[in-house]
Design brief:
This protein has 28 helices and 15 strands. The model has no long low-confidence stretch (mean pLDDT 82). A hairpin with a 2-residue loop joins strand 7 and strand 8. The chain is an alpha/beta fold and 754 residues long. Helix 1 packs antiparallel against helix 17 and helix 26 packs across helix 27. Helix content is 64%, strand content 9%. The strands form four sheets. Strands 9-12-13-6-14-15 form a six-stranded mixed β-sheet, with helices on both faces.
Length: 754
């Protein structure tokens, strides 16, 4: 993937925005368990009261608390509480605190966060001691001793010795300070084992009980807390959803733009390929690399932007939350992660090689399908549908087996991992329930721990899943990069020369030799000839003699191995390919038409060609006879490749397309072989008249003697070498190879009559 990182530069701003949004989403997700824990621990269990800091406390209850306070703690209390008496309290105050009708009440002043923390510390131990004593006293009355600790039982024994009706707290006031301190130490020692959160929760329950005795509306306190925190939780969830939506939108936009630019560059690169590069890769794999491979990279890019960046953020954040929590269950997460690593490593080892094989099998399948479609007439003619069907089924079966293996492996993987995750939840609940029973963990904290554990595990799963998918995309990226890094063998010069304006279409071959890449020997040997402007130069020879190779060298579909080709006195390597090809009208042996209409195909050579130009070119190409017979004329639809017209019609339209361009040089690569003799003769006659008028140079490759007999110059080839140059008459006298070809096609009388 890093091989294509330069294509991410235009999207840096969007990527940074995605990272910021992912941080925001992660923070929201990490906040959710905390809110849920607080709602359970505080909102439900403690009635919306967070700790033991009393908003209001009766004077009688304060006297109890003062027993267990030292002078410093008592000063903190008196400094931050204001005594409210029944005589100076107004009506609203009495409605809010009904206990004022009977006794004085201490009210908490408006304090800051730090001061509130000091008040909490001052009250914490005293509240615990009072609460334990009150519970013990209540247990004496109920005779419920089953769940009492040793300290509580000792205290109960002490309380039982007190006379009937004696207030225990009045007795404690008269106890020596040392004895009272020992009792307080024993009570707080046991309570301290619970942890700060449990202490706060316990003290909050004490505060709730006191509020009820003061006459405060504890239900309103609880509802206010639940609605406030529930609303905040809802806002956080909404924020997480909005961030996720924005990330999805931006990630899709980045990935789509990334793949668009990548496809564009691959297409432009392939567009500039010479036949050498096209043959190196093959058409099938170039199609696969431009479409399927780019799509693979795009899919993984979306997942990287949405998951790979997000996973470490949420995973590390959840891990820090777990470490800072009171739950001593971190080992469970370590165990689960280790199990998942083992599972994913096993899957990685088996599945990853199959991804690489799958891409190769896809290329092979595309090749078989393309060959089947291109060769369908031949296949049907020889009744070999069964053989081709077997080839297709084999390729199809091979890719199916690979896909089934991958799908089954991934199909097993998810249920196994989900089973591990569910088992981890059960283990957390089992261990957590024991800690709750021991009084060291709260229910809400256990629920939060489960969620954090799931976040850690899911984050780890995201990374491991991507570790499987990224190598597959990396293979695709490597295949794409291979195309982009391919050096083009035919390039424009750094400083292009211009053609001589005084010359028009003159072509000269000087000591030209050519060898196909990878071939052991030359196919053309030291060719020297000139094709003069306004004249027709024809090439003939046996199959494999190099006729088509010669005309393919002129537009630089290939470059010469030795020697040089001059057009209008300038080496074609010294001018731009565009300038060179602007001079040429090329018609291949197999005419190719594009999807569209007849008019759009003809205007392919010249976009601004008028309808008169189209008609004139079609007249010369002998195409008007079938165009006029079509109801829509030039607006007749043409299928891709021209499959809805005959081979001869397709060829005539290809010739007409070249004629519309009105070039200086015409190249006909065995173009007339698909035409009947009558049409061939008419077309050549009209073409000769046009070339005489426009002074255009014509290069013509032909297999039929009849097509080239009237050419101004005929070049005869044999095994890549020139064995004769001249007119038909001259060659019949001087060139044995030409005579052999001529007599093999026409009788002596036909040749003499020509």
């Amino acid at each position: 993937m890093l091989k294509l990182r330069k294509y991410l530069k235009p999207f840096i701003a969007s990527i940074l925005a995605i990272i910021v949004l992912l941080f925001a989403q992660a923070m929201c997700e990490l906040a959710m368990p905390d809110y849920m824990s607080n709602i359970v621990n505080v909102g439900i269990t403690s009635g919306g009261i967070e700790d033991g800091v009393l908003e209001a406390v009766r004077e009688s209850e304060y006297d109890k608390l003062k027993i267990f306070m030292d002078e410093k703690q008592q000063k903190v209390f008196t400094d931050n509480y204001e005594l409210q008496t029944s005589s100076n309290a107004d009506k609203d105050m009495k409605e809010k605190y009904p206990a004022l009708e009977k006794e004085n009440v201490y009210l908490l002043k408006d304090v800051d966060k730090d001061t509130r923390e000091k008040v909490k510390l001052a009250l914490s131990e005293a509240e615990t001691c009072v609460m334990v004593l009150e519970q013990t006293q209540a247990n004496i009355k109920s005779a419920d001793t089953a769940n009492l600790t040793k300290e509580q039982k000792d205290m109960m024994d002490m309380l039982k010795k007190l006379p009937q009706g004696v207030d225990v707290f009045n007795v404690l006031k008269m106890m020596p300070k040392e004895q009272l301190a020992d009792m307080q130490k024993e009570i707080t020692k046991k309570s301290s084992l619970m942890g700060q959160d449990m202490m706060d929760s316990s003290n909050a329950l004490y505060a709730k009980a006191e509020y009820k005795k003061v006459g405060m509306d504890t239900d309103a306190i609880q509802y206010r807390y639940l609605f406030t925190n529930g609303g905040l939780m809802l806002l956080v969830a909404l924020g997480s959803a909005v961030a996720a939506i924005c990330v999805g939108f931006l990630a899709s936009k980045v990935a789509a733009g990334f793949s668009r630019n990548l496809r564009k560059d691959v297409f432009q690169k392939v567009e500039n390929f010479s036949n050498v590069e096209v043959n190196k890769f093959s058409t099938n794999t170039l199609i696969t690399r431009t479409t399927n491979d780019v799509q693979q990279v795009q899919m993984v890019m979306v997942m990287i932007l949405r998951m790979v960046i997000y996973a470490p953020i949420i995973g590390i954040g959840a891990l820090l939350k777990v470490i800072n929590s009171n739950a001593d269950m971190t080992w469970i997460i370590g165990l689960v992660v280790a199990v998942i690593i083992g599972i994913m490593a096993t899957a990685f080892a088996f599945v990853l090689p199959k991804f690489r094989i799958q891409q190769k099998l896809m290329d092979k399948l595309n090749s078989v399908v393309r060959e089947l479609l291109d060769g369908m007439p031949v296949i049907r003619a020889f009744n070999n549908q069964k053989i081709e069907s077997q080839k297709f089924h084999k390729s199809n079966h091979d890719i199916m087996k690979t896909q089934l293996f991958v799908s089954r492996s991934m199909g097993f993987l998810l249920p196994i991992i989900m089973f591990v995750m569910n088992m981890s939840s059960i283990l957390i609940v089992w261990v957590g329930s024991h800690q709750i029973n021991d009084g060291v963990l709260m229910v809400g904290d256990m629920m939060a721990f489960i969620q954090y554990a799931m976040q850690i595990i899911m984050a780890f799963m995201m990374v491991t899943m991507m570790s499987i998918m990224i190598p597959r995309a990396s293979v695709a990226a490597g295949r794409i990069k291979e195309v982009l890094d391919t050096e083009i063998s035919i390039c424009d010069p750094e400083k292009a020369e211009n053609f001589d304006a005084d010359k028009r279409g003159e072509i000269e071959f000087k000591n030209v030799s050519f060898r196909y890449p990878g071939a052991e020997e030359d196919v053309l040997h030291n060719l020297n000839f000139t094709a003069e402007a306004g004249k027709t130069t024809a090439f003939i020879g046996s199959t494999g003699s190099g006729k088509s190779t010669i005309v393919n060298l002129v537009p630089r579909f290939f470059d010469v191995t030795k020697g040089e080709i001059l057009v209008d006195g300038v080496n074609i390597k010294h001018v731009s390919q565009k300038a060179l090809r602007d001079k040429i009208g090329y018609v291949p042996q197999k005419g190719f038409l594009f999807s569209g209409t007849i008019a759009t195909n003809l205007r392919y050579a010249k976009e601004d060609a008028s309808e008169e130009d189209l008609k004139a070119a079609s007249e010369i190409a002998q195409a008007m006879e079938f165009i006029d017979n079509k109801p829509e004329g030039f607006d007749t639809e043409i299928a891709q490749g021209g499959t809805n017209v005959s081979g001869g019609q397709r060829q005539r339209l290809s010739i007409a397309r070249a004629l519309v361009k009105k070039p200086e040089i015409f190249i006909f690569d065995d173009t007339f072989s698909a035409l009947d003799f009558k049409t061939d003769a008419k077309l050549r006659k009209a073409l000769n008249a046009l070339c005489e008028e426009t002074r255009s140079t014509v290069l013509m490759v032909a297999q039929r003697i009849s097509s080239i007999m009237h050419a101004d110059r005929i070049v005869v080839l044999d095994k890549g070498a020139i064995v004769g140059i001249g007119t038909h008459k001259e060659l019949m006298e001087t060139c044995d190879v030409y005579k052999e070809i001529a007599y093999s096609q026409l009788s002596k009388e036909e040749l003499e009559n020509e």
